[in-house]
Specification:
Blueprint: H1 2-21, H2 29-71, H3 90-136, H4 142-170, E1 182-185, H5 186-195, H6 198-203, E2 207-211, E3 218-221, H7 223-240, E4 246-253, E5 256-262, H8 293-303, E6 307-312, E7 319-324
Helix pairs in contact: 1-2, 3-4, 5-7, 7-8
Length: about 350
Amino acid sequence: MPAILLLVVLDLAATWVITHKIDLAIWMLEDFFWLMVVGQIVLMAASAWVVVHGVRSGLRSVNLLSEEIRQRSIDDMQPLEVAGVPAEMEPLVRHTNDLLARLDSSLAAQRRFIGHAAHQLRTPLSGLRLESELMLSRPLPDDVRARAERIKAVSDRMIRLGQQLLVLARADPNARPQDSFQRIDLCDWVRASGAEWIPRTRAAQVQLDLVAPEESVWIDADPLLLDELLGNLIDNAMRYGNPGGCITLNVGSNPPSLTVMDDGPGIPVDDQDRVFEAFYRSPSATAGGSGLGLAIVREIAHAHGAWWKLTSRPEYPGTRLSVVFPGPRKGAQLTRHDKQV
């Protein structure tokens, strides 16, 4: 509107100059014609510039809103910014924010249900496993022993699944896991947490190595969630790596990072993005599992504001997964990065 008013003022000013400052008596009809033509061309050019500039200015905020939506993570349900959006777009943005809020509430309710259900299932499943272990401790006919072993194996898998579901609920950003963050030395923590896996790796005839700097590498984190993150990475490496192979835990200092590497067959290129989806299992997977291991790793990394990067064949002869943490910050309030590097 200001630009249009400016054009009207210029048109009136040009008319006043022509009628009051120019001696029209000496002008020919042809002169008036060309004056009108030039004036119309200038007016049309100015009008076109005003229209193009106005449209681009109006669409700039829409383009920014579109780019914000494109860069968002699927887990980010924060409301969109209404400020700066054209008045015609404000109802759409408000309704979109209302939809995001309802989706967030629905997803939070689902996560709470999963957490409660998993917690309630732990007690009867633990009792079932205990009963099967008591049966196996006594002399049994071969067919009964085989059935008891199958019951115990299924109970172990269900207990492990319930534990993973509880970890997913705990790692939910809406549950504010940052409130339980502690400042820890990543090197010392990996040494202690990795040492708990030594009996299992030895039983599987897998070598477990640690590469870490001598100086401390400080991060703000939840030790229990980090235990689950490292445990899932080592468990995946043992399940899908080569029998009798090697698993290497590498701690980086700048930036703080944890990398787990194995020398297994690797992950197919088509599955390298999908393995982080909950309950997804590659058609080429040979070992059993629930498909939650790397999904838990992703959620725990999100909860810590960390990035992750998966590298496998053909770039790396095996599988390498790195989790890059933010450095320690005052108050342990970390900024979440919803992207991969």
